[in-house]
Write a structure and sequence with these properties.
InterPro entries: Methyltransf_16, SAM-dependent_MTases_sf. The protein has about 325 residues and is an alpha/beta fold. The chain is built from 10 helices and 9 strands. It is elongated.
Amino acid sequence: MTWPENPRTQLLPDSALVYPSVERLRDAAIQETLYERLFADNAITLPPPKRYQLRILKELVSRIESSIIDWDEHGISDNLMLALSHLLASNLPSEATAAQQKCYVTYHLSRLDGEAFEPHITLLENRSLISASGTTGLRTWEASLHLGQYLCANPHLVQNKRVLELGAGTGYLAILCAKYLHADHVIVSDGSDDVINNLPDSFFLNGLQGSEKITPMELKWGHALLGTEEETWNGGRRIDVVLGADITYDTGVIPSLVATLVEVLHRSPDATILIAATERNRLTFEKFLDVSTRRGLAVSYASFPVPPRTEQNGPFYSDEIPIHICQLRRNDATSE
């Protein structure tokens, strides 16, 4: 088994975790390695929540116990049992409270291995489906991770380009483009004040605080793009690439979203739009395609299926629901 020098974690559903084989689990040296790398004090720079640690460690100990045939020959690590007892004795929040608390999540960028030392993105996320403030933008969704993998496989799409991300949420894609894919500049936009206020933390965690390569911006879909500190929106500077992930799930906002896409293309006619859409509801996805076509946008698809979970090396995300990556451009032959 090989381990990174400084382990980092991505919180996964219990069903998605892969444990060592039975033979390895009952090996004393493997158990000590698991303890030292995952459960010892300060083993992980930004550890997951204690409730998550407890759940995983209980399952690990249970699997070790089940793997042992001869208790005279094998046993359970004293260190693992001590770590388990400490977690059990901790004053842990309830499941409901824990779901609303922010926690550190680190995504390993396996497609960029070799280009930087352990390339990764660390974010402070709210892991509940909808945060206490009512927004879905404080966690990173599967479509963002999948579109990120597509960009890592095709870095020329954003290299030296001026990028606008819509509905940026945690800023995962924007940080990826600014830090690793050599974008010239990235605008990280969202319509939620809570999301915008959370972005500086994300920038800080990834060494982008104060960087001129990335700029947060409040942008509400369907509203005219007007200048605030500058006379014109974005100072009149062009946009080369527009990114959006999991922003087509609500039929009620699709007309406003497409209106914003059309206005961006009016200002930057040669811009490419890449939208990653998780197909939770076929009718919702088809409405997005229909509204886009009626507003004069040509839609094509990237051939980039979600890899099977067993083939993922990070970031990890569900392979059960299709995620479409759509490319939209102005169709000058189509009138509104």
